[in-house]
Amino acid sequence: MEKMRRFESIYDYNVFNNNETKHPLVTVVDLSKADPRSLSKMYFGFYIVFLKDVKCGDLVYGRDTYDYQEGTLVFLAPGQVAGSNDNDDIYQPKGHALAFHADLIHGTSLGKRIQEYTFFGYQSNEALHLSERERNLVLDCFSKIDYELERGVDKHSKRLIVANIELFLDYSVRFYDRQFITRDNVHQGLLERFENLLNEYFESDKPEILGLPSVTWCAEQLNLSSNYFGDLVKKETGKTAQEYIQSKLIDVAKEKIFDGNKTINQIAGELGFKYPQHFARVFKKRVGHTPNEYRSMN
């Protein structure tokens, strides 16, 4: 069985990469100082962002492989496992990593906003590809954080370090917005495939067997993480993925309601609702009338 490296603390990760620990909760790692190694599986007990500067095999999350090339950023949240594609080749790491523990940001603005940075939940083929100017800006943010670490801890250091991490993450949001546009060839046809997926789902007996389609299920069928999928749908349509699914659900429900041979309870079951009352509430919220009222009106 392949051995997994576990990094529970910032100190552990610094030691592994031959970097000095200047602060127990945050570090900017120069990966070129690390010893040559193969890319084994790794568990992280903290937030970590990799800026890759050299091609050295594929980085795997779960069963999927990151679209991870030179000049890319990959974001991992605490508790995630990343690793190799079973490549035993020895390579010299190059690039940088920003790692910070959740304890660093408790009680701060970043701590309150950390869930907004949905890219910490992205998975396969979803790394952030940087232009040269964007890469330089990222390195500048890392440099400012490292500058504060070099100065030592004082009453200002935590606020400035956290502010620079937050600034870097806000820039990453902007860069991902740009990527959703510039990498349109990668995403081309996503909405069409999403629409076809929902059409096929509601035309089959899956709703009665599996229930209502979830965002997570749809994302898995399209080989995307639910976070990345949700962000893409939002950027393209202005709706959340859940709102998009519900819109399709209501469209299908309206067609079925015109069939006077079926009771509302039957229609609710065919759509995947466990309880007809739930269907009635959802329909009225979206349409303004109950299913029975809508049938009578039409």
UniProtKB/TrEMBL annotation:
InterPro entries: Homeodomain-like_sf, HTH_AraC, Tscrpt_reg_AraC-type_HTH. Keywords: DNA-binding, Transcription, Transcription regulation. It comes from the Bacteria. This is Helix-turn-helix transcriptional regulator. Transmembrane segments: none annotated. The keyword Transcription applies. PANTHER family: ARAC-FAMILY TRANSCRIPTIONAL REGULATOR (PTHR43280), TRANSCRIPTIONAL REGULATORY PROTEIN (PTHR43280:SF32). GO terms for molecular function: DNA-binding transcription factor activity; sequence-specific DNA binding. Residues 192-297 form the HTH araC/xylS-type domain. It comes from Mucilaginibacter rubeus. SMART domains: HTH_ARAC.
